[in-house]
């Protein structure tokens, strides 16, 4: 096999209460990579589609490129040559795990082309290197679920310990991306370094409740647990109409609604595909009330992670 | 029925990572209440055994007494008369949920005598009133599991939301109570009111991991998650030889070991009864190395909660 086309999914990180530890994959949107073996050593990006020229073309400065480079170093074959076309199928700076999806698609494609020397879980550290250059920290709450599929807990970073959580068969995600931009670094910068013990206890209760709700499954418990008292009150000020959009989602039947990753996208969970569609329409309408256009995506939780396209 | 004898179990609150939100019940020790209907209105304590005269005999100042009084007010029958004998079968100020077990035994007994007008879950707020006068705050992480049995998450206090978590059939608790005393109010007073965001994230990861580990079940995940970076580093200074005793438990095969409630008792979890016994001996030996005698208790997780004795 000399060439391969791989899709890696967008992801919702944090999931209300689980800042830096929870994330799940969706069916769409996502990014595509076409990776081709080359005689010339090293990783070269021949084209990036859909980024309006904003992403670095230099492989070592691109999330997908650096992930493949780190992977090749690890398996002891840094001299191998690859040409990559990156097809960005979702907005940048959206809170949908755009950089993670590119990194995962890239490193997954390379591993497939080389006959799968590593398992998906073993690819995680290399995809995290992509996050490091994109966001300033090698966080795993987007690359984890994009790579492994499903709902993922990053239990620990040191040592890295990623746990996949079973989710109910009927659990739908509505994603709405307003056409505004929030920089991930800014979104992290405004957070306080200290949390009250009181709020830590409240948040831990919701973290425990959400995991128990997903695994039981118990939709009411999921709903009661989709509450973030630490991050959302701070970051939501970066999203115009946040409270109105959230309320519109809840009124339309959402189990819960919060910021996707560092925003500005917002996600809502529900237990029915039709309800999930209605939630999307209601959220878009609420944004539109102040003149903000948006894109909506509805899907089940993506249990597969990356996939090789025909 | 005019008289009833009820046992309510001791409990391990916090369970390493779950400060104020996690607790589970053990088979022993526990407290017993004998409650008898009386012609004289109100709750009277006729005897308390095993407290060396340290607990208040006045019903409204006693955890079991106040719980029954609040319960009778709630069901609209404050004029009913009861005489209570409280048999304390575990040390006071031990971190084993002594006050909770008394409160639960009392209110459970009253509800049984009156033909069960309320469910166990509905009794919770009255048992919490016992905690309020014993510890200064109406926490639920001891009374919850003592009343409901099993492993309990207090997801929220406002509104009160208590969730029972399934635990593996083979999960054993070793409890060791050193013959020293730590006041619950002191143990709470030394805690800081602020937690770093970094430690909050680490603790949330362990909270999620412990719930997932218990429900899967996955003993390795349980073991990796039994880590407390917020409370244990502060409170353990109140327990002589804490680090040595903990290490002795881990060396003897414990999945994890930490402070039971506010201490000074320490608990360890394991997946085998023989190992649990060996852990107890090793922990007692480590305390004895500095001249501290102790009591050890080994039991499975108590799934039943309070029980009526013949």
From TrEMBL, chains A, B:
One of its GO terms (molecular function) is homoserine kinase activity. ATP binds at residues 91-101. One of its GO terms (cellular component) is cytoplasm. It holds the Pfam family GHMP_kinases_N. Pathway: Amino-acid biosynthesis; L-threonine biosynthesis; L-threonine from L-aspartate: step 4/5. Residues 69-150 form the GHMP kinase N-terminal domain. One of its GO terms (biological process) is threonine biosynthetic process. It catalyses: L-homoserine + ATP = O-phospho-L-homoserine + ADP + H(+). Residues 216-287 form the GHMP kinase C-terminal domain. Its main location: cytoplasm. It is found in: Cytoplasm. Its EC number is 2.7.1.39. Coiled coil: none annotated. Keywords: Amino-acid biosynthesis, ATP-binding, Cytoplasm, Kinase, Nucleotide-binding, Threonine biosynthesis, Transferase. Belongs to the GHMP kinase family. Homoserine kinase subfamily. NCBIfam families: PRK01212.1-4, thrB. Catalyzes the ATP-dependent phosphorylation of L-homoserine to L-homoserine phosphate. This is Homoserine kinase. It comes from Spirosoma rhododendri.
